[in-house]
Amino acid sequence: MKNTTQTLSRRQILVAGATLSGGMALGLFIPGTARAAAPELEPRYWAEDAPDPREVNAWVVIEPDDSVTLRCPMAEMGQGTGSGLAMLLAEELECRWDNVKVEFASVNRNIRENTLYGDMVAAGSRGIRTTWPYVQQAGASARARLVQAAASKWNVPAAQCEARESKVFHQPSGRSLRYGELVKDAAKIKLSTEPAIKAPEQFKLAGTRQPRLDSAIKSTGQALYGIDTREAGQLYASIMSCPVFGGKLVSVDDSAIQGRRGIKQVVKLDDAVAVVADNYWRANEALKKLKVTWDGGAAAKTDSAQFARDYRDALDGPMVTARNDGDAKSAIAKSAHVVEAVYETPLLAHATMEPCNATVHLQKDRLDVWMGSQSPLQNAKMAAQEAGLKPEQVYFHQLYLGGGFGRRTFGDELRHAVRVAKAGNITQPLQLLWSREQDMRADRYRPQSAIRLKGALSPDGKLEAIFIQSVCGSIQRSTGQKVANGLDPTSLEGIGPSVPYNKVPNWYTGQMLKNTHVPVAYWRSVGGSQNSFYLESFIDELAHAAGKDPLEFRRSLTDRVDSIAVLNKLAEISGWGKPMAAGRGRGISLVENHGAVGGQIAEVTVKPSGEVRVDRVFAATDAYHVVNPNLVDAQIEGGAVFGMSAMLFGEITIQNGAAAQGNFNDYRVARMTDAPEMVTALALTGGRDDKGKPKWGGVGECSTAPIAAAIANAIFAATGKRVRSLPFKNVKLTELSSL
Amino acid sequence: MVTLTVNGQQHQIDVEPEMPLLWALRNEIGLTGTKYGCGIAQCGACTVLMDGHPVRSCMLAVSSVQGREITTIEGLSQNGTLNKVQEAWIAEDVPQCGYCQSGQILSATALLSRTPHPDNSDIDAAMAGNICRCGTYVRIRRAIHRAASDKA
User: Fold this and answer.
1) CA separation for the pair A381, A394 (Å, rounded)
2) Mutate which of B7, B11, B15, B36 to disrupt the A interface (most A C-beta within 10 Å)?
């Protein structure tokens, strides 16, 4: 099928703009020339799997005309790493930024060439903060080869040569050569030692505010997502998993779909049934008409109300010690002023805008995969195993991801596609697309948890001890990873070691991991999504109990430069302390999440009916160093809305062992009408870690973690009522007693 | 046979009359810029313009749109020129994952054609049907104001 889309590159758009408005083209987009000079991401962006003869190394391709292609090892799911990593590469390569294209590094090549592109896992806010050493090295290495190639040509020492703006210069003789003239020789050069990489203080491009590279293709419908794959002869499948997690398929009566147009076959798996057709709609309509019998086993008798009781009851049971500073237990026992509270949070779905899907073409000695994945290398290896092939026989074509948030790491949709293709002996390309209902009901959710917090205050209102008992679903256990010593770091994030405070003398955190048959997994900000709500709400309770200002109270708990920088920035941008009208309130929250410190202040209006509107959010972030403040701002804005959506509305409930919600009509998410105004600011403290390496924090999640507590604390400021159970939609504020 | 007019072009397609326009566009005509998000007109990812009005193509049978002018995201830019909403979207770097943005842009285009200078409550009302899970609402709002201000 021909795609009739017209291809518009950002540059063509600009040219068109110039014709329209006569010379005003640059002003059409944003002030300054940065917009016009922006490189681009291509609508289809996976790299070829064979080495390109124009490569300087596996990361950099240079054409004779000096145009540069940079290879990005991370998925682009909106987080902007496709733009950020390209900037880091270009920074070291010393190439012109206006002549760059970016493509996604070949997964197959990564398998064959000893994972030269790293693990390719775009999760855990790792896009920049764990990849910068090897991405910078790749760029520096390519630059050193180009310089060496020029030096050899001129027969001068390389040390006399300098690379900039896609050229190598020899100052003493005034000679220069373009990268395009050097690339052939450069590719043959073997460096005796790898060049040093730049320190962030030496950056010229990285660290500056730049447009993202995919705005144009994503504003014209051209960006290709997994769901947009259209291969010749492609078939489509819709699948339904056993509604009760872990249950089995018993039987399928397909008499109702006999003779329906376009239906190719019904494929039965152990725990799911799929219909294959020539059009997705036909497949999905037929799937809905099947009469399916499932065996959900004992889990089919479970529900959320019971789970919630079980989690709360387990708070009184044994705990595994995760953190134990000083003697929190006796400090609490001796204190005359103890504050205590129990909090809880539900399961949450990811609900990415693009439902999970994978297109596969399974042949005797080769498997092609087209999908958007946060973990394409692992997914490709898994698919090889499912298909009975070697990993290097899998060709994984990475597409844009219509949202990830942790969901697109496991490859569940790919496993389905390979299994259906295999069981159905399907020799054509097959696109398996989860309906929204399948996507929501077969998700791996943010774990459910309950927590009890105790705090001891001195007579003058100092926090002497924190004592935490947490019961939480283990992601490691649910995803088949090893759980060491009964503790799961993902469930501890935000209450264990990773908190922004260092001056609480006695601190105990105990945890009991408690799983049900419901699968749980990473959900944007992971443990912080619930633990930061707990701890930061409780710190607010303590501040009020101590009669202290919540921002100043937090300041008294830490002398970390990052935490203090964020608190100072928040105070500066928010007008903290200024009086607010009746019915309005302001709440603060401070977290450490995925290597960065994020703070937020929410302003809310509470109507007499108890309805809450989040009016404005101020966010300050210390990620130490950042590549592109424009995209960091976008992550902070979006992360806060994502967390706010969960705080206000997000909840998956279990009935008869299955998820009760299946679509956006019963799983409510934030809409334009809910969106607050946002004011974001960076509070970067730079610095080096204990090994002397520059510190880099992640920014994809540190804005999701703080928002729930900031809103709850603002509601308290407005009403004197404490929200301790989420989502807020279930809270009847008018019936809640004031504290 | 059903005749559809999409982006000024006529397409004759051999499909069931009840097939939703979304799947005719994506699977039969090959225009994949219009996205599937929910199938029940709750998320707006499938928004297209029908005679200039925003509609959810996932619940609109092809038989009901014969004789109507359908505009998809691919039809908004003509001869290499973007419409002002797209220009504003790029200027504000609105998209993150980008999946919902075709629908957002078409809803915003329809809003501006009937309300050239919308205030925030106009924007809320017109855009409430389009979900963005990345949370780009702040920039969408800004981009709509930019497009309305002629400086886009």
Assistant:
1) 8
2) B36
For residue A121 the two structure tokens come to 């896992």
Which amino acid is residue A738, in one-letter code?
Answer: S
Cβ of A261 under 8 Å from any chain B Cβ?
A: yes
Residues spanned by the domain of B124? 84-148
With a threshold of 0.90, tell me whether the complex ipTM lies above it: yes
| Structure confidence by residue, pLDDT tens digits, A473-494 | 999 999 999 999 999 999 999 9
Q: What percent of chain A has pLDDT over 70?
A: 95
pLDDT at A38: 55
The CATH fold assigned to A304-348+444-730 is: Aldehyde Oxidoreductase; domain 4 (3.30.365)
Looking at B21, B52, B75, the residue that finishes a domain is B75
What does the pLDDT read at residue A35? Answer: 39
**What's the CA gap between A686 and A207, in Å, rounded?**
12
Confidence of residue A643 (pLDDT cuts 50, 70, 90): very high
- Report in angstroms the alpha-carbon separations of A457 from A258, A466, A484, B11, B36: 72, 9, 34, 74, 54
pLDDT grade for A10, boundaries at 50, 70 and 90: very low
| Claim to verify: residue B140 and residue B119 sit in the same structural domain | yes
CATH number, domain containing residue B118: 1.10.150.120
Give yes or no: residues B101 and B54 share one domain.
no
Q: Which of B44, B75, B106 is the C-terminal boundary of a domain? A: B75
Q: Are A676 and A584 in contact (CB under 8 A)?
A: no
The CATH class of the A226-297+356-433 domain is alpha beta
Written out in words, the top-level CATH class of the domain with range A38-218 is alpha beta
Closest in B31, B40, B129 to A5, CB measured:
B31
Whole-angstrom Cα distance, residue A391 to residue A215? 34
Does one domain contain both B62 and B24?
yes
**Residue A57 burial (CB count, 10 A):** 17
Residue with tokens 């809310």: A604
What are the tens digits of pLDDT across the range A201-245? 999 999 999 999 999 999 999 999 999 999 999 999 999 999 999
Which of A42, A219, A238, A441 is the best substitution to test chain B (most B C-beta atoms within 10 A)? A219
Is B64 found in the same domain as B94?
no
Q: How far is A500 from chain B (nearest CA, A)?
A: 26
Nearest CB to B133 within list A6, A219, A642: A642
- pLDDT tens digits for A249-279? 999 999 999 999 999 999 999 999 999 999 9
Q: Is the same domain home to B12 and B69?
A: yes
Contact assignment for B74 to A403 by CB distance below 8 Å: no
> Cα–Cα distances in Å, from A379 out to A396, A408, A674?
9, 10, 36
Domains: count for chain B: 2
Q: Where are the domains of chain A?
A: 1-30, 38-218, 226-297+356-433, 304-348+444-730
Residue B151 is predicted with a pLDDT of 58
